[in-house]
Amino acid sequence: MARIVIAGSSEQSREQLSKLLSSSGYPVYRLCTNTWELRRALNDCDDGLLILAGQMPDCSADELFWDYGAQVQILLLAKPPVLEACEEDGIFRLALPASQQAVLGALEMLTQLHRMRLPKRAGDEKRIVEQAKSLLMRRDGLTEPQAHRALQQYAMNHGLRMADYAAQIIKGDGGESHAGSAISSLP
After folding, report:
1. Contact call for residues 93 and 117 (beta carbons, < 8 A)
2. What is the pTM of this model?
3. What is the rounded CA–CA span in Å between residue 106 and residue 75?
């Protein structure tokens, strides 16, 4: 399932969205109160969905799209003037006030778009990646997102497919030096 990040300057709107999503079966990855937290969450997330409740005080939805549009789907929930100021066509907009059903419907649509964007892994490849993540988690004390990021970063930096690098780690050819270099570059 896509990691969902909720951001907005209003604590009440962040909490309402979080409760709505959680009660509907959508786990929320992070709630962000400022742009620094939001950018850190999106960098950690690699892919997912961003629900932006209104505008961040020091960053527009357009700027977030320019920086993260390739890795996240963005849903902007805002009053009509804020929505009209948004220039990017890739940002999904929902005018406030909006019903819970409208928010959940928009989220379901974005979740489906997110799934379509993800590369499909064969069953064996997925199993190998999961085994390598488990090994990194046990061996290096990483969380699942950190292990995933370490695998992904090393593979990307060295022109490897993630499943191929994961297989190297499982065989022992990936060694601690490889994983350590990927882990040391984590934020």
Report:
1. no
2. 0.62
3. 8
